[in-house]
Specification:
- By secondary structure, the chain is α/β, with parallel strands linked by helices.
- The protein is built from six helices and five strands, in the order βαβααβαβαβα.
- A five-stranded parallel β-sheet has the order 3-2-1-4-5.
- Strand 4, helix 5 and strand 5 form a beta-alpha-beta unit.
């Protein structure tokens, strides 16, 4: 069984997120997602975020039918979780590189890989929220 892993905020689940999840799911049998807990999102994105609580974000991810397990992570990075799960693939969007991917060194040490997925241009939660505010 090939285990895949994705980490992120996944606030206001949108087409870009779904593209990432669908693309990842095609390459693994079990897809695990780690989402940042609410207070980590606030630290990273600002006090107005997250739009959806971690519980809602978790439910939405599971409802896609693409994700098997969702962890809510309160740590600064998902490295501890990656070391516990030992996935064969870590998926990231192309705004990251293998060098900037948390867990890349560890996964390669046990024979896994980092798979970079091309993002859909111009779609991000920050842009969506900005457009809503201005629109």
């Amino acid at each position: 069984m090939k285990i895949g892993f994705i980490s992120g905020v996944f606030d206001c689940l949108h087409e870009g997120h779904l593209h990432l999840l669908y693309s990842a799911r095609l390459s693994c049998d079990l897809l695990i997602v780690s989402i940042n807990c609410d207070w980590r999102v606030k630290m990273k994105k600002g006090l107005s975020r997250p739009i959806d609580t971690s519980r809602i974000r978790k439910e939405k991810l599971l409802e896609t039918g693409l994700v098997n397990i969702v962890f809510i992570n309160g740590e600064k990075t998902p490295l501890g979780l990656i070391k516990q799960i030992r996935p064969q693939i870590i998926f990231v969007g192309d705004d990251y590189s293998e060098k900037t991917t948390v867990g890349a060194e560890e996964i390669k040490a046990w024979g896994g890989e980092v798979k970079i997925i091309k993002r859909i241009g111009g779609i991000s939660t920050t842009k969506i929220l900005k457009d809503r505010k201005n629109g």
